[in-house]
Automatic annotation (TrEMBL):
Species of origin: Larsenimonas suaedae
Pathway: Cell wall biogenesis; peptidoglycan biosynthesis
Occurrences of domain Penicillin-binding protein dimerisation (ranges): 65-213
Annotated Penicillin-binding protein transpeptidase domain residues: 254-551
UniProt protein name: Peptidoglycan D,D-transpeptidase FtsI
Amino acid sequence: MSRQKDTSSSDSEYHPMSPWRFRFIVFIILVAMAVLAGRIVYLQVVDHQFLKGQGDARTLRVETIDAHRGMITDRDGEPLAVSTPVVTLWANPQELPDDRATLTRLAKSLGDNPSDFIDRVERYRKKSFMYLKRQVTPSPAQTVLDLGIAGVYGKHDYKRYYPTGEVTAQLLGVTNIDDKGQEGLELAYDDYLSGTPGKRRVLKDRKGRLVRDLHLIRDAEPGGDLQLTINLRLQYMAYRELKAAVREHHADAGTLVMIDAHNGEVLAMANAPSFNPNNRANLDPAGLRNRGVTDAFEPGSVMKPLAMCAGLSSGKFTPDTVIDTSPGWMVLDHKYTIKDSLDFGKLTMTGIITKSSNIGMTHMALALPDDAIWNMYSKMGLGQEPEDITFPGEAAGSLPSPYHWSKAKRATLAYGYGLSASALQLAAAYTTITNDGRRVPATLFKRRSPVKGKQIVTPDVAHQVLKMMETVVEPGGSGYRAAVNGYRVAGKTGTVRKVGVEGYQRKAYRANFLGIAPASNPRIITMISIDNPKGKEFYGGQVSAPIFARVAGKALRLLDVPPDNPHDNAEATR
């Protein structure tokens, strides 16, 4: 009885699946398999580019190939600015190890303080990029990479190096840490020097490490080279003498511009104080200015020979025309007093240049049409930006309109007040006198063909003014300290009061001198300006003229210019 009971109990617990339920489950499974198979076929056959793209996005990269920045050289091919290969070290903080011992070892290899370095790493832990050290020379960088620390990588880069250092700093300018021009010629010609970066496709692993270089998309095109007209030996010499003079006279600054008297090519352009472009840790931004191009100032008596061109061209005056400058002062417009340093009495036009007489220049200016001197200055390029030079911040200077001028304004313009010009503009203006009356624009780059220049005055007027300027450097002239042994020299001094908040300052001057050598067949024009000399001497003939003598003498010998004053050589050998 009990066995029968157990069997019936077991039968009551067994419930076989109904046919329709079984078929439904099988159907669901088949449908799911069909959907899965269809999706696989769709992705692999129809939309296979999607999976390929997703995979490539995680492994393929397009990297930039930096273009080599063009070199800047002097006229003889001597390097002034070059780009050298360096390595930028970077890290993925998320991949860097956590143990302090490894991070300390990395910090010491980088030359960093371990504690500060570890703190910096922790601040960047949630980011995927941080610089370790930029622009490291290859050997030390490889030492860091050879440590094999996870998350540390290197990128090849370029760093700008200036072999001439402070000698050409303001002229060349500088680049930033990304090798982009920031000042000077580096900025003015940045696009030309930079070139065009290239691109390449590479395969990397999930940690960003290079697995394989696949193919080149576009090769990098290196930047173009700039060849300047600068003569490096002349540049070194000019900077050395200028720097010494600025220090000797406790001046604020100084600039020297030397150009070829015939073709306007800039042979030297020096500024003091300067800076080391290879180490800018304590750089004073004021030292970045290329004062020879960017600073415009009142030239003073340096303008008198240029104004004399207007007087001689008018036909009213000759070099021997006599003007009475007594008593050495005069009043114009009932309030403006013009003075000479002494009562020079009667002077020829040549004597007016020799003695630098303001009174004599005033009489000449008032005898000319109102705009005669202004027109002469304008034709010589004053008050206009330099034609053949592109430089950041270049000064156009100022040449006020001549309309409705008072007598005082016409007079002051004749002896160098009431206008402003840069040292480069003044040197270029004097090519009118050294080129038979033709003005040639200044240039920093070698010209492919000679420039004839624009005829400003007749050759006779140019020769007459040049002979007048020779008397300035002879014994008794204001610029006698500019004399160069063995060579005839022409020049003009200029001492200008600086303008302050309340007008012209009583004890702040700019000492100027413009020299031409040799006078028989000019080869160089040199403009020197010393800003605010604070020693006992402050006149242009005392401060700037001796600089010209030292620089021009060496320059003429370096340029292999034969002496044109044999008598002077004979006297020197006795």
